[in-house]
Amino acid sequence: MNQELNAIVMPSGVLMLEWTDTSEPVQDRSRLLQETLFSRYRTPGKDWLVTLAFGDSSIPLSSSMAFFRNFASEFAKKLTRTPDLESVREKVQVELDEELLERYLDAVPPMTGAEYLTRKVLARIWARLGDGFRQAISDFDGTVEEFVEKRGAGFHVAGKVFFHLVENKSQQAPFAFLSTYATRIGKKGKAKHLPLKHALEEYGAESGKLLELLASVQRAAKQSNLIRDLLDSGELFHPLAMTSKEAFTFLKEVPLYENAGIMCGIPNWWKGGASGASLKISMGGAAPSVMGMKALLAFDAELFLGDAPISPEEARKLLEGSEGLAFIKGKWVAADPEKLKKVLEAYDKAQALADEEGLSVRDALRFQLNPEKFLGVDAEDDDIQIGHGQWMASVMKKLVDPESIPPVKTGKGFLAKLRKYQKKGVDWLWFLHNLQFGACLADDMGLGKTVELLAFLSSLQTGKNGGPSKGGNLAKASLLIIPASLIANWEREIMRFFPTLKFFVAHPQANKNGKVESADKSWLDSLDLVITTYALAQKYQWLKDYSWQYVILDEAQAIKNPGTKQTKAVKRLDCENRIVMTGTPIENRLSDLWSLFDFLNPGLLGNAAEFKKFSSGMKDDPGRYARLRKTVSPYILRRLKTDKNVISDLPEKVEMKTFTELSRKQVALYRKLVADLARTIAETEGMQRKGLVLSALMKFKQICNHPDQYLGTGLFEEKDSGKFSRLREISETIFAKREKALVFTQFKEMTEPLADFLSGIFGREGLVLHGSVPVNKRKTLIEKFQSGEYVPFMVLSLKAGGVGLNLTEANHVIHFDRWWNPAVENQATDRAFRIGQKKNVVVHKFVTRGTVEEKIDLMLEKKAELSDRIIAATGEKWITEMNDDELIELFKLSVA
To answer: For residues 213 and 231, what is the distance between their CA atoms, to the nearest angstrom?
Structure first.
């Protein structure tokens, strides 16, 4: 399997390099560059970013590495165009302008950690490039030009020659050109610019110095016919009048001159031709008569030259006599004949579309993503500018900024008190509901997506019972599809926050007879929600036959592969609208993104072939990333635990109960152990009875963890443990965001199996700490975990890792099995949640449904004083004080 190097932005904003598998062939020179970069990345004092900045831009790299190479090369360009760089050397300061920063933030490609690539982080990378160059040049024994040339990037340090182009009042020759050079005159050596002809006099017979001065001009002449002719004729050394055609040629070649090391002074209105001919299309000036992706929008198309509107007739007349520049309304603008011709063709196509009945909302949004497809022209981003009319602009503003959405009331039966950001999430879902657009709720793990969705359903229930509502038939039920491991979690959250919700779980384990009967339409209409799994959504025909109000997917990455039967079955379900929920960024892989949106808002990103064609050109056209982001971002609500609007509204420690199901093997072993205990408990008493109870309690815990822990077989297959399955799902989300986790277990013998299992998920080794680890080695383990290196997890036995450790690099704490002593658990959690922790900590407490784990957890919830006064002092010994009937009831398995 081939591998390619990828750049990853960590939650801290630090850049990390990582090898990943790729199906694409890797060229030898690309492999060599990547190995060089990775070697420098791993070597202290060597800055790989500086190597990337001055590297060969023609060598293929991954999209993430290409992005940072492009950004770093912007630094190299600005650096090498700094006047008198040779004298300044390590004192140079290269400013990052806002326009460049915004352009790159808009064009971030799908990559791990893209959500952490903020303005601040990108500015810090720019500053690091400056520090890296200053350190490298101070260590380099040679000129700056030699330093740059050694890296073979095609850059050249700015020399002393300057080219100037200014406007001229003469109509025959409307532009004037002058070449100058920088020299020092007088006793104090004051710098001054003189016409280049004076260099002939200054250097006289010193041909070597003259050739050195003109080296940048010679380089430019090798690539420019204009400069070669001026140099050969000697006209370069004198002021020149230029026609608009000659000036246009000069202006287009400015980047070439600058790369050769010539500084250029040009009119402010020239921006590389971007101010030339363009087509501006505005869609959605007024609200459509009905809502939804199929609603029709009117749109307008208008031609511009610079910022001045022109008629098609004026444009065609201009095309006939254009020499590249045109004097329009008192100023010069670019009028490149080739561009003008393409823009006119696009305008004619747009007018033909406008003359029809209009575009659907879906097509209008696809237009923004891929205007070339609709207009049949291969145009650059600036040639065709898609904008929103008044109504569409107001809609998009609300979608990307939920703060501006009017609040919606939750139903009377909804009991949770929502945080501010959660309320805005419900408002956002309701706004999309009224528009009949699909929504992706992608808040960070721990921020409460489940409670937001339940609040939204309560609003639907209000409408269903006669309250105000828009958008859809409220007499229908909605369908929630989830991984089987989340059924218990959803049931508990519903009973806790929305007990009046009428719901049914379409899963055999949720029904006493172990079956799911067919359901008729009238019964389904009486429900608010049906819950099933991804596997069963393919199985039950009545799920396929019913027309749902909403189909809602939790852990929606389950349909990221568009070719699977599971994905196809889910996408065929009939419904009025759709919602997906995920805690992982969905923009990191283009194929995943397409599949999710093919479910969410079908057709928005085109069909699979169209999207593949569009995305194949992204590396060569970073502007496509910006267009894709702009197209999908209105339908994705993603708030991070690091967001300022969230941090102020969020407790520093978020505790979550994670309910898991027993596997069939676990159920069989558990029931047998209950039966054995029932037979023996009545025959024992005193200390023997206490020992028997505590021993049984330990065995039940082992079965809940994994059958192989109880049996001692040592295989620890994932399918045999509900906890292992849920641990995978949580860990995959943690890994997708490159966060770190502490995993606590009270059993030393579980630390290695857990570490082996997690290593397979994270693709790298973690750390293990238990009582047998020597004290002197523990310090090394802690330092490694706390270092900048990505060590994704540490598995700890509760006794060894519960106190005295500082592990603030982690922002997830997972209690794989419970001690049932809140004081002990909190001490363990505080290894991460303590002074020095700058991140919000999410605590996951695993509870196996229907077992002694769930029953004791409920007892602790109902009797807080029990945990404070009894358990904290006696540990688990209080359980031995129960009578026989109470004990059997406590241990008995209460699931279907």
So the answer is: 14
